[in-house]
Sequence to fold (129 residues):
Amino acid sequence: MPKINVGNSKSLLVKYVVRIVLGTALSIFVLTAAISYIVLKLDIDLSVLKYVGVAVCIISAVIISFISTSGFKNNYLALSAISVLPLIAFCVINGCVNKSSALLILIKVVGIIAAAFVVSIIRSGRRAR
Fold:
């Protein structure tokens, strides 16, 4: 990818934001639908769903970070952290509306940030080779 110049930076930013928004919406929708289908078919106890929700959030964070940082050469940590902000907002608002425990919300937020950090390390390692 070439250097970012002033004329090209606006379209690059728009593409980045669109990737974040679509990636967040689609990953949450698809993973939630898949997990719901699995829970329904296997007849899993509903008390386990809060832990499955944590896993969905973390997997979504990995997917969003990979999708949004593709096409960039530098600053993977900052780009990954910015890309998961809508997911963090979604998880916090969802937890507050559904009256989840503060500890569960904190676990989701820390898991999302950790997943974004891991993705940035993986991306940086691939670039170094």
About this structure: The longest helix spans residues 6-42.
